[in-house]
Design brief:
Layout: E1 4-11, E2 15-17, E3 35-36, E4 44-45, H1 47-59, E5 60-66, H2 67-72, E6 86-90, E7 105-108, H3 111-122, E8 126-130, H4 133-140, E9 146-152, E10 160-161, E11 170-172, E12 176-180, E13 183-193
Parallel strand pairs: 1-8, 1-9, 5-6, 5-8, 6-7
Antiparallel strand pairs: 2-10, 3-4, 9-13, 11-13, 12-13
Length: 195
């Protein structure tokens, strides 16, 4: 079974969006370099960021998000983002009216079902959990193997927290640290409960 990785770009003070759900400068690093990150020609990063991010993105099979992210993105028009095969949406509401049932989106009611569904779909590839409230719940439940943060040089002061409202303490291993342009990539293995 593949790893479960919690991931997002984040401000230096721990927010994945401001109070109005806007990422502001958190994604500036995705257009601050000269190495194409994908085929769009829009995402241009430093060589260090490319060497770190591209293999990770290529390893992701399934992304888990909450209904809030799904609604903010209009469900990516039924096409999973970034070449991901499937999206699992944690929600207590049904799929939107007119939603194509053939779209590779799976609507589930709780985080345990979300992780089990995602792992089944992913096989030995990575399951990515979007940071925020749902990610924080998955982390608090002890279901996250690794935490990845793309730390942008910005301070929001308030907003949407990386770990959401989760009230949990965990130990992480020493980070792998990669410095890119306008970003510091951090990767931590989750060690276990704080004793």
């Amino acid at each position: 079974m593949g790893s479960v990785v919690m991931y997002a770009s984040v401000s230096t003070d721990g927010f994945i969006a401001d109070s109005d759900d806007q990422p502001g400068p958190l994604f500036d690093w995705l257009t601050s370099g000269d190495v194409p990150l994908d085929e769009s020609g829009v995402l241009l990063v430093s060589r260090a960021s490319y060497d770190y991010v591209r293999p990770y993105w290529d390893s992701i099979a399934v992304t888990i998000v909450g209904r809030h992210v799904f609604d903010l993105t209009d469900g990516w028009d039924g096409r999973p983002p970034g070449g991901v095969d499937h999206v699992v949406v944690v929600t207590h509401r049904p799929a939107p009216d007119g939603w194509d049932p053939a779209a590779p989106f799976h609507f589930v009611h709780d985080i345990e079902t979300a992780v089990a569904t995602a792992q089944r779909l992913a096989g030995d590839r990575v399951v990515e959990v979007a940071a925020g409230d749902v990610g924080g719940q998955v982390f608090a439940a002890g279901l996250v193997d690794e935490v990845r943060m793309d730390v942008a040089p910005a301070v929001f002061g308030a907003g949407k927290r990386y770990f959401g409202a989760a009230d949990v303490q965990r130990l992480l291993d020493d980070p792998a640290v990669i410095q890119g342009d306008r970003v510091l990539h951090l990767r931590y293995r989750v060690r276990g409960p704080l004793d």
